[in-house]
DNA sequence: GAAAGACTAGATCGATCGATCTAGTGGGAG
DNA sequence: CTCCCACTAGATCGATCGATCTAGTCTTTC
């Protein structure tokens, strides 16, 4: 058995735990996700969990949020690269997000929102993982806007508002079971980006 | 004892339960809020709870969300009425929200977001109460924009995006412990409203 | 092939979950 | 007074929570 395979097998259970936890946190938040459910979905046992994550559920959740954040960053990267026009690129992000949500029965959206909102002020570990994710996405959008010709002074404020609108629109979509809010957001954000050019 | 006082006393415990639940749901979501904690905060017992809400926690939560929604509607109403200019009025909503959040240590924001996100697809009762709240707020913003001169065709999309941006910016503020996202949102939404006039 | 260390299996712990239940209390109606 | 009914009090239920613990099974190393 070569080193690469060994590495993969050694971390296989750990990866399954992180992936399963990320999916569950996204759908039902932190308190709504029990360890036993995670173990069942991941096909793991308590022994493995506390071997890889000695601090238990909280440590696993923080890691799962980082994993989910990278996933969401990929979707954002794809959307932002979809057009030479930054306004059109932002609009495409909204379309991609709407599509992903619709195809998953309104479950697969922002991987941190549900968990972050309910643990604010009660778990520094999870909160800072959430904060880093949001700041990473803000940075990606800001870089794309700057590159697209938005003056640096406005790029930060605009990027932050783009992310806010996408996050909020996703909330409205998921609650109503309708992608209208994200369609509206895409259209209006394109207008806003052009107004900042 | 006259009828009015009698009515108030009769529903006193019920009201305390609803108020306490609304505050807890806003801060820590549905699964993170135990019945025993609610009873303690409200100064009530199981007997009273299941007398007023035979279907238990879920029924109480739905009622608490409706209560919180009216509270948030008042803040929105105040902001929307603060200026004859709709762009300035929207910006003031963002300021009011930022102020309320800061003054409460980042806990008192949207009363439904945390709870709604974690129960989506698992409690029709709570989800529809959340949906109604969001639609009520959208309607208020849309009416103000239309009255302020935004063409009817665009008012709905703009109002929806304003609410989305406020909700998302609040998430970013609470997670980061910084009101910057709401300041940015207020500034950018004013630009967007003017672009739609 | 013995020893060591990485990892897995799952029973079990005390605490707490939401819910149910019986036993009340107290004020108004007849 | 007596009866009734809205309401309160809180013990108790089985289930499940997150966490710990012992007892393993592999793989690698010498």
Map the helices and strands.
The structure is a homodimer of 197-residue chains.
Chain A: H1 3-10, H2 12-28, H3 35-42, H4 46-52, H5 57-80, H6 86-103, H7 113-119, H8 124-147, H9 152-176, H10 180-195
Helix pairs in contact in A: 2-3, 2-5, 5-6, 5-8, 6-9, 6-10, 8-9, 9-10
The structure holds a DNA duplex (30 and 30 nucleotides).
InterPro entries (chains A, B): Homeodomain-like_sf, HTH_TetR, Tet_transcr_reg_TetR-rel_C_sf, YxaF_TetR_C
DNA-binding region (chains A, B): 34-53
Protein name (chains A, B): TetR/AcrR family transcriptional regulator
Your description of this structure?
2 copies of one chain form a homodimer. Chain A has 197 residues and is mainly alpha-helical. Chain A has one domain: Tetracycline Repressor, domain 2. Helices cover 78% and strands 0% of the residues of chain A. Chain A is built from 10 helices and no strands. The first copy, chain A, is elongated and about 55 Å long. Chains A and B meet through helix 7, helix 8, helix 9 and helix 10 of A and helix 7, helix 8, helix 9 and helix 10 of B. Chain A binds a DNA duplex (30 and 30 nucleotides) through residues 1, 6, 10, 13, 34-36, 44-48, 50-52, 56-57.
């Amino acid at each position: 058995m070569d080193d690469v395979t060994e590495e993969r097998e050694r971390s296989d259970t750990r990866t399954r735990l992180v992936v399963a936890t990320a999916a569950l946190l996204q759908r039902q938040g932190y308190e709504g996700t029990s360890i036993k459910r995670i173990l069942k979905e991941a096909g793991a046992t308590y022994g493995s969990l506390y071997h890889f994550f000695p601090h238990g559920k909280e440590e696993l959740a923080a890691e799962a949020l980082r994993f989910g954040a990278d996933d969401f960053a990929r979707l954002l990267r794809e959307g932002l690269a979809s057009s030479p026009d930054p306004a059109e690129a932002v609009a495409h992000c909204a379309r991609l997000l709407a599509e992903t949500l619709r195809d998953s029965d309104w479950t697969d959206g922002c991987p941190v929102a549900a968990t972050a909102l309910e643990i604010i002020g009660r778990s520094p570990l999870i909160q800072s993982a959430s904060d880093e994710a949001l700041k990473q996405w803000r940075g990606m959008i800001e870089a794309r806007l700057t590159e697209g010709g938005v003056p640096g002074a406005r790029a930060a404020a605009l990027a932050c508002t783009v992310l806010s609108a996408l996050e909020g629109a996703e909330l409205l979509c998921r609650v109503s079971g309708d992608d209208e809010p994200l369609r509206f957001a895409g259209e209006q954000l394109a207008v806003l980006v052009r107004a900042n050019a």
